[in-house]
Design goal:
404 residues; 14 helices; disordered C terminus; alpha/beta
């Protein structure tokens, strides 16, 4: 048997290395600003971006800036303006925002056919299961079309289980919204592959954690290595035969153990399986701890609290209409509204969202479940912007559309 992945039930984050910063209490001799985000308020945006460039360059991340410049130019002016507004209001820690979210996660279903070891689907805690109905989906898209740039059509479940997934993609595309889908690929039959391309899907990312059968099947429980791989290869062959540039296709591996490291010799052997096929990108990414639901050692430990960026640019709509502020909150513990009763506009600046932004600004999430145990607020940051977010956002969102 192969070694099992290095995941284990969470006991919460390690003790905060800077308790004064989280609690707002200054320890003797320690300089802690009264408003942790006030440095952002003191900087003009231009100077802020200048400092971002300098800091990124000095931390050997100059590609971030290049990507930022190249990437922003691809957006329509409306989106560019909102991105800059989001950056500005995030840095200033504003609670009421004069713009609306530019990205949504909309969950077609919370059911999943797999029980992957790092996913809360396989944890003992239950969560509500169901399929989003067509009327609710249309209500969300009809409102979102006025301000949202793109939607992720996935969240806690496997979206290809929803019979109307291609209709959802086509409806969102007709509304002028870019569509992104993350799938385990196990249910991707030929007819569905054609339907996704016909619907105009912009980006498709496959989760495939394993360069060999043993690793893959020990992580992606209930999936079969050969079958899933055959589905993905067949999808790429169809895309090639149709001469379609879309969807921009990514194969994503989570770095869960040494066998899945970016330098693993098996990786190159595995990548050769896709030679000559229109796979646009191969990503090996670091895991996160599902807002404290699982402990993954090492990645976030020891970094200073950095306010989470999600409450400044995104919302997540669960299958039944509950709204959360981020995609790490698997169980919707942070529920900030309900789209059956409220508009997205009302939810965006409603009291729960303001309260969450305030907690981030004050760097005190000690009473906020699940943020208090989430590793997203303990990651390396540049000028107050968490670099993993920035890099992933620019690479996947902005450059990810370069294949269009
Ligand atoms: S800190 Fe974590 S749980 Fe809280 S909003 Fe951010 S990503 Fe979500």
């Amino acid at each position: 048997m192969m070694e099992s992945p290095k995941w284990r039930p969470s006991r919460g984050l390690p003790e905060n290395p800077h308790p004064a910063r989280q609690s707002g209490v200054r320890r003797k001799g320690e300089k802690v600003p009264t408003d942790p985000m006030s440095w952002g308020a003191r900087l003009g945006l231009e100077e802020g971006l200048g400092r971002l460039a300098w800091t990124a360059a000095s931390s050997n991340s100059v590609t971030v800036i290049t990507e930022l410049k190249m990437g922003l130019a691809r957006f329509p002016w409306r989106v560019r303006k909102t991105l800059l507004q989001a950056a500005w209001h995030y840095l200033r820690g504003h609670e009421v925002l004069p713009y609306l979210p530019i990205r949504l996660w909309v969950e077609p279903t919370s059911y999943c056919n797999l029980r992957c070891v790092m996913c809360p689907q396989s944890f003992p805690r239950e969560h509500a299961k169901g399929y989003m109905d067509w009327g609710l989906f249309r209500k969300v898209i009809d409102e979102a079309a006025e301000f949202v740039y793109d939607i992720n059509l996935h969240h806690t479940g496997e979206s290809t289980l929803h019979k109307r997934l291609p209709d959802m993609i086509a409806y969102a595309r007709q509304a002028g919204i870019y569509t992104r889908l993350h799938s385990n690929g196990t249910l991707l039959r030929e007819d569905l592959a054609h339907a996704l391309i016909d619907a105009g899907l912009d980006l498709l990312s496959f989760s495939f954690d394993g360069f060999d059968k043993e690793t893959y099947e020990s992580i992606r429980v209930n999936a079969r290595f050969e079958k899933t791989l055959a589905n993905i290869i067949r999808f790429l062959e169809i895309k090639k035969a149709r001469g379609s540039k879309k969807p921009y296709t990514i194969l994503e591996v989570i770095h869960l153990n040494e066998k899945l490291s970016p330098t693993s010799p098996q990786r190159y052997e595995f990548e050769r399986r896709f030679e000559g096929l229109p796979l646009d990108e191969f990503i090996i990414k670091e895991p996160h701890n599902w807002a404290g639901s699982y402990d993954q050692s090492g990645y976030a430990v020891g970094h200073v609290f950095t306010p989470c960026t999600f409450p400044w640019y995104a919302l997540v709509i669960h299958w039944d209409g509950r709204v959360a502020p981020c995609p790490q909150d698997f169980y919707c513990d942070l529920q900030v509204g309900h789209v059956r009763e409220q508009t997205l506009r009302a939810i965006w600046n409603g009291e729960p969202m303001q309260r969450l932004r305030r907690a981030m600004r004050l760097r005190d999430c000690s009473k906020v479940v699940p943020c208090r145990d989430c590793d997203m607020i303990r990651r390396r940051a540049v000028l107050g912007v968490p670099t993993p977010y920035l890099k992933v956002f620019l690479k996947e969102t902005v450059l990810g559309y370069s294949g269009q």
